[in-house]
Amino acid sequence: MISLFKSHKFLEFSSSANRIDKRKDWYFENQTLFVVEKLSGLVFTRRFQGSFDLSEAAPNNLTLSDIRDAFGEWMAVCSTRGPGEEQHVVFSDFFGLAPVYYSFIPGRGIIISDSYSGVASAYQSRIGQISLNEPNYLSLLPNWIGVYLAASCQENTMSNEVKLLLPTEALVITSSSVRIIDRMSLSSASGIEDPEALIERGIEESTSMLAYLSQSTEMEKRIRLSGGNDSRMALSLLAAAGVTQEFRVQTTDPRPIESPAAREMLEKDMRIADELRRRYGMAWATPYSGKRIRLSFDETIRSYCDYQSQLSPEFFTQSPVRLMPDEPILTMVGAGGEIMRQAAAASYIPDEVFGSVAQAEALPPNEQIQRIVDWSLQRLAIPASLKAVSHAYLKSAFERAGGASLRERLTNFNFLTSYRCHFGNSRLFTALNQPQISVLNNAYFVKASQCMSIEDRANDQFTRKLLEKTDPKLLDVVFENESTTKNVSSPAAVNPRLNAWIPEYDNATSSQPRVTDLSVKSGPTRQWRTLFDPKQQGQTYLSEGFDEIERLTDHSTDANWREFHDRLLEHGRVGSLHLNWLVFKTACALEGFYPQNAEQVFLDSDVSPRDSSLKGEVNVSDVIRDGWNDADLIRMQPQAVASGRLVMVSLQPQMAASNSYEYAAYLMENGRRLYSQGYQDQPNFIFEVDNLDGRNLSIIGFARRRPSARPHIVRDVPVKIQGSAALD
């Protein structure tokens, strides 16, 4: 099934805690006691790999110690049960590329999801309407400095009630407490302080995972190679694992590029990539056959929000077409290397704001932050009456980033904000049959860089050490950046000839792939697929969206919001603000008021009867849909009758092939499961309850294809108790 749209899920944990405690010194005595109960996203380890969904059971016999340093883009829930209080640990991959979204409700518990809509939908069904995070909205919506300051600030989303778990954090939940602990404390890298030892251990982890991947998958494999730092480090790890021959090289052809500056940079990338390819005897990637999918303007927003909501500002609506290869293609990317050095902003911001790094470091930290925030606000299309709100907000964000120097602070800020926004797109590409992985997203490499001075990191010493330990011959070719060439390459490094790459590249890519248009079934957006004008539709979307936000927001500021929005519309029309960024950030704000429907999932992923009841209410929603073409996976018209001590249920599936399905059901009370009946051939169930008077009961129905497929769920069907009433 095409999964361009995400199916939103959430978990709820009951807890009497009235606040979230932060305890960075809290450690687990034995991580093997914590069983992995839920995984979501793309996971690669030396033992297993795959794409997972929160509604599925995690692979058997996995513990926290098996998953803590896994590569990929994922979140996990691990639990320990036994004598004493149950504990649950919730965390994501080490870079936070698949972030954990959560909402803490004092005295009641915490809602967890792998998507913003998952939490927002659950919150609205339990507590009520969420509110706009005005400082975040005012600061991020008009920001055109670039990805560095355009992403969600650390843990904030566009709503006050929903937070992002930082990549440096993990949640520990019990029935009486909720804690945030240091994510590094879960990693086996936490006990090592020597950079050399950490790099060597990181190489071992990466090459072991690559060796397992080589043996366990027959997918076509590619590496995205350029003349830069990061892709060469990724290539060095392929070489150390002995698997370069299994990967084809993919590089952007510079010739169609219109911008002279961009074309010049890409030409250098191509020359260097070709030289590296030749040295390892690797082939160019060839065009693939596949399907072409056309989306409407609204569908492009929905698809991107589903996977990147509140996270990435880089929303592109220039084309409604998505290409999906017939067979999956695994692509190795160089994401992660910037964290091992220093963020690019740590170079250009000191120069632009202070004149030089030396002049910046001579100032007290408070003055450094003050001047950077002032510089940022000069570039925001914000009325003067609103600048004080943004000033306090951005100042707090920079202060909390931490760091012994300005360059460290700017690099930390990048790690907590724009880094995961820029690279956290593997799940979306996986939906298009093109999973991605970076071998640099490695806890040992991060810890090694943190143990190095910022000067060594800025001078590319991490890169040099890694290449020396994996394959020193990679030092014999220049980099696209002259500074990196000076810091890393050998004195006699080769600078490849200008057009040497063209003959072999053209020969490899000359074939015309077979691309077929995927037919689109009828649906509410079908008529709009023939019209795709991102500028016109984007401006209309903004105008209507701003009106809706003003209507729904009880403003905590006295500023003129109409003036603010009118100014943004004008900037969007003349092009001084990137229209697509405005559209996506506005969509993120609107998503809080109108989140996609979400379903609750439980830690026991099967539906066999249990004695204990799980806590948490169930979201009210329509029948589950596949999202992409708006066609029901399975239609049901459930009926329930409550009489005496009995609740009689019929799920009433409406489908031609109903005999290929099997069914199960939960009886819920105020979100707590009272009873469950496991899978059976017939969609009819009877539950016996001691006393039905005045009780708030509901049914959750499950259906799955035989044998043992993932269930589709009909959520929260209320049971009418007054008399013997059937469902409407």
Describe this structure in words.
- With 728 residues, the protein is α+β, with helices and mostly antiparallel strands.
- Among the domains are: 8-137 and 154-189, Glutamine Phosphoribosylpyrophosphate, subunit 1, domain 1 (4-Layer Sandwich); 193-288 and 327-335 and 439-516; 535-593, no CATH class; 625-718, Immunoglobulin-like (Sandwich), CATH 2.60.40.10.
- It has 24 helices and 26 strands.
- The radius of gyration is 27 Å and the shape is globular.
- The model is unreliable at 605-633 and 721-728 (pLDDT under 50).
- This is Asparagine synthetase domain-containing protein.
- It comes from Corynebacterium lipophilum.
Low-pLDDT segments, ≥5 res:
605-633, 721-728
The CA-CA distance between the termini, in Å, is 31 Å
How many DSSP-defined strands? 26
Radius of gyration: 27 Å
